[in-house]
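Reposting from the mailing list since nobody answered there.

I have sequence plus structure tokens for a pair of proteins and want to know whether others read the tokens the same way I do. The first protein:
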Amino acid sequence: MKFKTLLSVSALSIATFIGSAQAAIIPAMDFATQSGWLADGVNSSSKQANGTVFDCAAGTTDAANGCGLTFTGAAGLPNAYDTVTWGSSNAKSGLNIVSQAGTLVTNGDWVQTGLITHSNKTILAGSRSLYKLDLETLFTLVNPPVGSKAATVGIQFNETPNTSNPANCPIPQLSGTGCDDTFLIKLNLPAIKFVVAGPEGKEQYTISFKLNPLSGVTQSVVNPDGSIVLVTTEGTVNQLELLAQLTMSKVSAPATVGMLGLSLIMLGLRRRNKQ
């Protein structure tokens, strides 16, 4: 499997503000997110146990896309949905994403921006299961109204065949129940950075992102390219969260008194998974 990374850089300049000394310090920022699994016929595929991969044609149901995936719950982004499921009617696995809004406190804790729930069921032999899927996320700073940036996070999923003896399961196998399923995720969301200049100097603000495994998910491997392998136990419902944190550091360069120059440099990463 060959990974192709497309990196785009854009600069967004915000209007200049004139204010008092305290205006140069941003104590907190309000954010909102929109996230969804893409059902556009390009960014999703499924695979059978024999290794045959099916590229999903555009459509939200198996009848329309021909790959066994069903997308439900419009996420507010083009061709993006809250939930994707696969398997039979009585043994259906799936992924759900809940988009969060909240407040980032400067130099405060990590804050959840999205919650992913994976329902890991033992699907019938021969069923098509998820193989590759892209999650599109739009992160918006709403107060102050700095702007929005979209990023596409690629996920490769391995629905493992189950055996009666866990010792015969594919590696990595971390539990003693069935054969663990694995995700390969290259979560390399670039930090959002901007500088505020005021009477007392310049301050650089950075919004960083990371993925945090929750119940039922084990982080198995961190690869040199930044991708991680997440292991989930068969027959469980498990979760992982997307997090953001706002930090500030002083910049030694002098600033013009009474003037706030606010500029934002955003990096948008799109990782696509190509055979």
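The second protein, same order (residues first, tokens after):
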Amino acid sequence: MMIRYGFLSTHPPTRCGLATFNAALAAHLGEGGVVRIAANGDDPTPVPGVVHTWTTTTPAGWRDSAEVLSTFDVAVVQHEYGIYPGRDGSEVLSVLRRLTVPSLVVLHTVLTYPTESQKSLLEEIVAAADAVVTITKAARDRLLVGYAVDAAKVSVIPHGTSDYAGPPSSRGAQPHLLTWGLLGPGKGIEWALRGLARLRDLEPPPVYTVAGRTHPKVIEHHGEAYRASLHQLGAALGIAHNVRYESSYLDDAALGELVRSADIIVLPYDSTEQVTSGVLVEAVAARIPVVATAFPHAVELLTDGPGLLVPHKNPTALATAIRRILTKPALAATLRQRNGHAEPALRWPAVAQQYHDVAARLVAAHHRPVAVAGK
């Protein structure tokens, strides 16, 4: 079935995980257009595929956005608190209620302890949507247990991945640790630095690359204070010479080469709520051993999988896990072989097909003749 998709989301040139996710999904679903959510000051550069821009400072911008989305067969709405106008982003609900076509809402955050406003809003979003997708089973379980929602509407479709797997790219003599993604408080890099300081006795000691620009919202409110604090901490710990900061934006080819050069992907995130991590999925699919704090998505993918879990904010545990992988080749080989989660089902074409299957059911139901009593 040919379906024309309308997408509502942040989108490139905005650089955030949600924009990257939406761009990949839109590219693999094919025919359609994007209604881009843009904060005041976002790069206004026109992007192919964007048919309308909803600037968050535009009064009642939801109305025009809903009208544009209703020209497609299905509206795919990315939901994250804080990207839409209104309290907790409540104006997305106005869009959903005004649509004249079926809607599929992708939930990127499901909080265990939401405020009353956040809980009520998410329940109303699910009620207004025709279908809802969570990216992990943990998010679905949390949604069904903690919120009053219709379970029949909810499907689990994994986060898609690029194809970064392949032979290792060039590596130096030192073991290479890597963290990538937008930088900001909560990323936990300070714990990784403290862990790295506990590995100086290794011969040779590992080098740690932190790749990614500072998150635009962090820049807006705090400038580069977090990045500066990391530089200061590295110097104080005596490991600055073993840490590389790559702050330029990397395209897929450059990022793939960087990922394949890593011996271990380190995800020292502070959040205990994170049910979706695109970086984690990409790391697993690339078959690189992962050391991650026990946030929900990591617990789901790494338990008996290709990585080790450690407690939050615990540099000693981080260092111990990294040391085990670097000094025990058999363990590293075992972790690389635990690639059950990295099967083709995680690649974007397969993930997009799952979205298409849900959308096709919605379109079919939308066009099904309504039975008239007595006929």
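Reply #1 (J.P.):
I read it the same way you do. The chain has 14 helices and 13 strands.
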